[in-house]
Amino acid sequence: MDKAWSPKEDEILVSLGNREYGKRMRAIYLGHRTAKQCADRWKAIRGYIDRPFTPFECNRIRHLHQMYGPRWRRMSDDLRRSPKMIKECWLAMEEIA
Fold first, then answer.
1. What CA–CA distance (Å, rounded) separates 73 from 47?
2. Where is the Myb-like domain positioned along the sequence (predicted)?
3. Phi-psi region for residue 73, left (φ > 0), alpha (ψ -120 to 50) or beta?
4. What is the mean pLDDT of the chain?
5. What is the sign of the dihedral through the CA atoms of 81, 18, 69 and 96?
6. Cα four-point dihedral sign 58, 53, 9, 23
């Protein structure tokens, strides 16, 4: 039986996942977890990450875009979302405006 995932491990996994690392890289970074364990855990917690953007997050994207321009990876550290998701949200907001 595997040891339960700690909140700290989840935080590291989310951080690495937002940077779009492969499952092997996540496993190497966590050390004592296999690539399969990391991939399975990522799939389990990704549902929370893939939730729709809130109005607060959309406003935050607008603000960060004014500050940094289209530096999606930099924004991803602040929003805990993947750069691709942030860019897609930005493009959708631009279409509406």
1. 20
2. 1-46
3. alpha
4. 79
5. negative
6. negative
b/e sequence 17-49, b meaning 16+ C-beta within 10 Å? bbeebebeebbeebeebeeebbbebbeeeeeee
Extract the tokens encoding 74. 């930099």
Of 70, 71, 76, residue with least CA distance to 20: 76
pLDDT for position 1: 43
Q: When comparing pLDDT for 53 and 23, which is higher?
A: 53
Residues in the chain: 97
Q: What is the mean pLDDT of residues 38-54?
A: 74
CA nearest to 82, candidates 3, 16, 27, 36: 16
Q: When comparing pLDDT for 17 and 11, which is higher?
A: 11
Per-residue pLDDT reduced to its tens digit, 49-89: 667 888 999 999 999 999 999 998 888 878 877 788 888 88
* SS3 category, 80: coil
